[in-house]
Amino acid sequence: MTRVDYYNDPNAPKANSIAVAVSAFIQDDEGRILMIRRTDNDLYSIPGGQLELGETLAEAAVREVREETGIECEVTGVIGLYSDPKHVIAYDDGEVRQEFSICFRANVMGGDLRTSSESKEVFWVDPADLENLNIHRSIRLRIEHAFSMDSLPYFT
Fold first, then answer.
1. Catalytic residues
2. Domains of the chain
3. Which of 15, 94, 130, 142 has the CB geometry, 3.0–4.6 Å to 98, for a possible disulfide?
4. How far separated are the first and last CA of the chain, in Å rounded?
5. pLDDT single digits (tens) 30-75
6. Which of 68, 36, 73 is nearest to 58 (CA)?
7. pLDDT for 25-35, tens place per residue?
8. Which residues contact residue 57 at a Cβ distance below 8 angstroms, ignoring those fewer than 6 apart?
């Protein structure tokens, strides 16, 4: 399924659903960030996805990182809560979601990088090289908040 992210776009379709999503900001020992290139919109992103029934938010983040990257991680904190109604995600099946996502900070516990049906590239990127990647504004915001080192989570 393909998706299109809209932010503050007057031509964006109107949201018709909301779902809980999670993402994880992970750095290695060299300070590089774990990134994927999504198969559904071809944009670069930190790993993440939708909460499933029967799991906690932290379990969802760990599962999504494992599924999309092959990396095992441990959630260590909350970066922010993102629910901006100006950010909607349109899927080709007609669903248009309002953003509702919790971004976690996590540490690497093991695993080996690999792609999946949701990630066509998986790699560690130096923060200085982020400007060269096509990253949606909403994900750039999460990365900026992760680097701000503010002790309080961001929220909208």
1. 121
2. 3-146 (3.90.79.10)
3. 15
4. 28
5. 999 999 999 999 999 999 999 999 999 999 999 999 999 999 999 9
6. 73
7. 999 999 999 99
8. 20, 22, 51, 102, 104
